[in-house]
Amino acid sequence: MKFVQKEFPISSRNRNEMIDITRQVRExxxxxxxxxxxxxxxCPHTTAAITINENADxxxxxxxxxxxxxxxxxxxxxxxxxxxNSDAHCKSSFVGASEQILIHDGRLTLGTWxxxxxxxxxxxxxxxxxxxxxxx
Length: 136
Fold this sequence. Notes:
5-stranded antiparallel sheet, Jelly Rolls
């Protein structure tokens, strides 16, 4: 089994933001030379996340962020975490720290409208994404 791990930096501009990282993930897969296997995209931050969702209409990202804010508002009575970013921790756990994507014939097996997103919930910040490619 072949194994390649690489990371890349990412910077957010807003407190809550979804950044399409599909191109960067594809580049890591291409550079790995692995044609069949899988890739894990991992976020090593407790106030950010990784997800797969529609990348054709930016309204989807807007609507998702709006829903997260309604479910887990930034300022909510009862939060105890001293840093004031309890909502970001909750959103991160709700969305999840990673996604696994199959690789076939050297390509990500994503649906027509799917993209990979880095979800920022406590920005703006400088972050990193870790990508692990495994071949069979």
